[in-house]
Automatic annotation (TrEMBL):
It is an enzyme of class 2 (transferase). Gene3D superfamilies: Phosphotransferase system, lactose/cellobiose-type IIA subunit (1.20.58.80). Keywords: Magnesium, Metal-binding, Phosphotransferase system, Sugar transport, Transferase, Transport. Binds 1 Mg(2+) ion per trimer. The gene is celC_1. GO terms for molecular function: metal ion binding; transferase activity. This is Cellobiose phosphotransferase system IIA component. InterPro entries: PTS_IIA_lac/cel (IPR003188), PTS_IIA_lac/cel_sf (IPR036542). The modification Phosphohistidine is found at residue 78. Its cofactor is Mg(2+). Its EC number is 2.7.1.-. It comes from Streptococcus massiliensis. One of its GO terms (biological process) is phosphoenolpyruvate-dependent sugar phosphotransferase system.
Length: 105
């Protein structure tokens, strides 16, 4: 895999995980307002974007497993960090949504 292809994959991961992160933060705002249905929809949309990021990541892993040499650059480290922290943030948001629902009753 050439450096340009790796950068495209990294930016695809950053793009989709960044969109997901924005949606998670929007969901937090909706939770504070008591709009749990809209918050849940935002978290589902965030998951859809995380899946797109994950597909880009999986392609890299499949290429690597097939013997394609992949030289890791700092942008890929950043992309992986972005993806994993956003996935964790969404998991926390899902738990918080359930807590907000209980408190809001």
């Amino acid at each position: 895999m050439n450096p340009e292809e790796l950068q495209v994959a990294a930016f695809e991961i950053i793009l989709h995980s960044g969109t997901a992160r924005t949606e998670v933060h929007e969901a937090f705002g909706l939770m504070r307002e008591g709009d749990f249905e809209a918050a849940a929809a935002k978290l589902e949309s965030a998951n859809d974007n995380l899946l797109l990021a994950h597909h880009a990541q999986t392609k890299l892993l499949q290429d690597y497993a097939s013997g394609v040499e992949i030289k890791i650059e700092i942008i890929m480290v950043h992309a992986q960090d972005h993806l994993m922290t956003t996935m964790t943030l969404r998991e926390v948001a899902l738990e918080m949504l359930e807590l907000y629902k209980k408190v809001g009753k």
